[in-house]
Design brief:
Length: 136
Amino acid sequence: MLIGGGGETGAETADFLAEYGHAITVLEMKSAIVEEMQYVHRMALLERLARNKVEIITGATVRRFVDGGVICERGGGRETLAGFDDVVLAMGAVAYNPLGDALKDKVAEIHVIGDAVKARSAKEANEEASRVAVAV
Ligand SMILES: Cc1cc2nc3c(=O)[nH]c(=O)nc-3n(C[C@H](O)[C@H](O)[C@H](O)COP(=O)(O)OP(=O)(O)OC[C@H]3O[C@@H](n4cnc5c(N)ncnc54)[C@H](O)[C@@H]3O)c2cc1C
């Protein structure tokens, strides 16, 4: 199975599936995976991935999906990685807020918070919720 994206979502998905015996390859465009994870958690996660023989390919940017794999750019060249039964996409999240625009002229006041502003963490969503709660 190929997991596109070695952020927290991709790496934790790899961790979960590898524990159940799946052969996993993680493809990440940066030079390392889960760079932003807290050190202790990151070390434990990397150790489990190594123990479960998860293949980690870094510095490789997915450019196109093809039958059973992807075409990626790595080290200045293009290469095809194929032979995968499944591909999991974990290449980031973006804000989705169609209601914000739809409600703009229908209500007197509107406060948009959390991932509807920008996909981040629950901590940031909670902070914004608290600020809005105090303000109103
Ligand atoms: C795999 C994964 C792991 C994560 N792990 C962490 C973590 O460890 N720590 C951390 O801090 N953050 C983590 N996050 C991020 C965290 O989940 C989000 O930042 C947080 O949930 C944002 O809260 P929110 O209320 O803005 O959005 P959400 O939690 O997405 O809530 C929005 C809700 O609105 C509902 N909704 C959407 N449209 C409509 C509609 N039209 N009508 C009614 N309801 C609607 C949705 O169904 C959803 O229930 C993780 C995210 C993912 C995807």
